[in-house]
Amino acid sequence: MFDTMTLTKAGGALCGSLLIFLLGAWAAEIIYHVGDDHGGHGEEHAQGYVIEVETEEVEVVEEEEVDVEVLMASASAEDGEGLWRNCRSCHALEPGVNGTGPSLYGVVGRSVGTEEGFGYSGALVAVADTWTEENLFYFIENPKGWAPGTAMNYNGLRSATDRADLIAYLDSVDD
């Protein structure tokens, strides 16, 4: 079948092919690689031309501290009723009626995670004990940021006055 000479020729052909492949890769690296010690021009000249772009300095606006008590004193329950439409797809205002989220009847002042018949994720209980106006205010702004791990998928209500109005409405619904 095969003699020693045939195996030697096949091995030599394989080694020769590998050597040619490696030499080709080495030559391509020298020719095409830019930015190292092989004679390239460096990273700043890697492109054929550079497009100059004027940049504007972005002014960083710090968020001012919101006084929740002052906002709640001027909150409008009537305006909050219009904002309720964002919540009613998952929550109800009737006592004991749970949807995707728990009933919000009597939520202001209620202990966190105690609505009967609703299975909470547990993340809320770790953050607060009672749904005070301030806790609701910051929770409604960014639920996942205020209580990481909560199952609530709402992105949040960014306007501080809208949040205060909504809380005033929720507080006015119950006795």
Number of strands: 0
Shape estimate: elongated
First and last CA, distance: 100 Å
Q: Can you count the helices?
A: 7
Can you give the mean pLDDT?
82
> For this structure, what is the CATH class of the domain at 69-173?
Mainly Alpha
Helix percentage = 40-55%
User: Strand content of the residues, in percent?
Assistant: under 5%
**What is Rg?**
33 Å
Main sheet characteristics: none
CATH architecture of the domain at 69-173: Orthogonal Bundle
Remind me, CATH topology of the domain at 69-173?
Answer: Cytochrome Bc1 Complex, Chain D, domain 2
Helix and strand element order = HHHHHHH
CATH superfamily assignment of the domain at 69-173?
Answer: Cytochrome c-like domain
Uncertain spans:
none
Oligomeric nature of the chains: single chain
Overall SS class = mainly alpha
GO molecular function: electron transfer activity; heme binding; metal ion binding
Keywords: Electron transport, Heme, Iron, Metal-binding, Transport
Domain Cytochrome c: 75-174
Protein name: Cytochrome c
What do you see in this structure?
The N and C termini lie far apart (100 Å). Helices cover 42% and strands 0% of the residues. α5 (133-141) packs across α7. It has a domain at 69-173: Cytochrome Bc1 Complex, Chain D, domain 2. The chain is elongated. With 175 residues, it is mostly helical.
Topology (SSEs and partners):
Elements (H helix, E strand, L loop, with lengths): L3 H29 L35 H6 L3 H7 L39 H5 L5 H9 L1 H4 L13 H14 L2
